[in-house]
Design brief:
It is a single chain. The protein is mainly beta. It has one helix at about 65-70, and strands at about 5-10, 25, 30-35, 40-45, 45-50, 55-60, 70, 75-80, 90-95, 100, 105-115. The protein has a single domain (about 10-115), classed as Deoxyuridine triphosphatase (dUTPase) (Deoxyuridine 5'-Triphosphate Nucleotidohydrolase, Chain A). The strands form four sheets. It has a four-stranded antiparallel sheet, with no helix packed on it. A three-stranded antiparallel sheet has the order 4-9-7. Strands 1-5 form a two-stranded antiparallel sheet. The radius of gyration is 19 Å and the shape is globular.
Amino acid sequence: MKKIKIKYSDGAYHLKKIKKGDMIDCANLEPIEMKKGEFKLINLGFACELPKGYMALLFPRSSTYKKYGLIQANSIGVIDNSFSSDEDIWHFPVIATRDISIPANTRLCQFYIVKQQPRLNFIEVSHLDNKVRGGFGSTGA
């Protein structure tokens, strides 16, 4: 079992493993007021130290757009292993598609951890000895 050291801000939602699903829900620390088209970095109220060799991927919950009209500004959030000091508070970058008001500690996003990519060495060659696969979008019939 992997362990994650976590430091919460006062009043923060405490993370917990849910019985169904694989993601860990995160919630906003403060109440949110946003106007349509506005961008905001939502404070999630915690900093943590991920296990060595792992990073986190942050996504909106499936209900976040439907309930609140929020979309994640960067499509996917990547939290590197080195983002691990007391000051490295996690945030959820969003754009509002309508005027909204959300109370504190509302579960808006979720994360899971994955192994970091191994070190890579790129070797320049004059050609690759493989069959042509086809163009973009060519795997379907």
